[in-house]
Amino acid sequence: MTHLTYIIPAYALAVVMILAYAISARARMERARKRLAAIDPRARDSSARDTKGPHRG
Amino acid sequence: MAAPNLHRFANPGQFLRLSGWLLPWLAIGGTVLTAVGLGWGLFLSPADWQQGDSVRIIYIHVPAAMLASAGYFGLAVCAVLSFVWRHPLADLAAVEIGPVGAGATALCLATGSLWGKPMWGAWWVWDARLTSMLVLLFLYLGHIALIRAFDNPERGYRAAAILALIGAADLPVIKFSVDWWNTLHQPATFKFTSAPTMYQGMVWPLLISVAGFSFGFGAIVTARLRAAVMERRIRGLMMARAQEAA
């Protein structure tokens, strides 16, 4: 394969950036979910319901 | 008028329910399609007869470029929703789209540079397409900075929304720069008016990669927006408790 010194950094950069955004977004969401559940009892029930579909409740 | 329907989906509780159902599908679709598209592009698609294997960078560069423009278009739509209908989630969505769109733009510029060096002999040229894309990155950074520049968040949202609307003028310049000017950058890979001229063995992994990046972009923005909605609810509850205690 030609131009590997350019192709590998391009793919590595893409993978690292996608993972960084995805992991930070998930971590932030989980942190918010736990904090909300700790101070709002209703959130504990609704967070379980959230994953079951858009037309419920 | 569409406003009542828009506001039905703007209800934070309704949004959390809808996005909670949608997010896993976006995340799974994004992961699978991106892995297939990039794997196919890197290992199975043919090399270009002129550019050799460096053409494999296209499977990252083009999706990143499309999402960079689409993300900014999203900011402009959020600005309209905020100004015209006072949509409660539009400003929050703009806050969360901005950094992800800036990342896509930076990835597009970086991979373009990595592709340009072996093909053009330069990491950067002041070509119309490259320059308009760099302007887009600065617009994103300006949008992010403006939101945080005011003590009153509402003023920051308004200022950023104005920038989003004005900056949207850069989008057609990016799209048509390769037609309007003689550029070093190659013509558009996908056109609205004609089928792609690329070899079929390259078109499919590119389309899959574009779909995967789009799903992934949607998943990341949705997850960030869910977090932002919950954080706002937490702030509201904390303030209510502090007022009760006072």
Structure commentary:
The complex is a heterodimer of chains A (about 55) and B (about 250). The radius of gyration of chain A is 19 Å and the shape is rod-shaped. Chain A has a domain at about 20-45. The N and C termini of chain A lie far apart (about 55 Å). Chain A has helices at about 5-40, 40-50. Chain A has about 55 residues and is an all-alpha fold. Chain B has a single domain (about 25-45, about 55-185, about 205-245), classed as Four Helix Bundle (Hemerythrin (Met), subunit A). Chain B is built from eight helices and no strands. Chain B has helices at about 5-10, 10-45, 60-85, 90-120, 130-145, 155-165, 170-180, 200-245. In chain B, α3 (about 60-85) packs across α8 (about 200-245). The longest helix of chain B has about 45 residues, at about 200-245. Chain B is globular and about 75 Å long. In chain B, about 40% of the residues are buried. The interface between A and B is large, with 37 and 46 residues.
Question: Which tags fit this structure?
Answer:
heterodimer, A: 57 residues, mainly alpha, 2 helices, disordered C terminus, B: Four Helix Bundle (Hemerythrin (Met), subunit A), globular
Shape of chain A: rod-shaped
Give the tally of β-strands of chain A.
0
Measured as a percent range, the helix fraction of chain A is over 70%
β-strand percent of chain A reads under 5%
Helical stretch tally of chain A: 2
The largest sheet of chain A, given as strand count, sense and whether it forms a barrel, is: none
Structural class of chain A: mainly alpha
Low-confidence stretches of chain B: none
Strand content of chain B: under 5%
Morphology of chain B = globular
* Average pLDDT for all residues of chain A: 82
Sheet bearing the most strands of chain B, described? none
Query: In angstroms, what is the radius of gyration of chain B?
Result: 20 Å
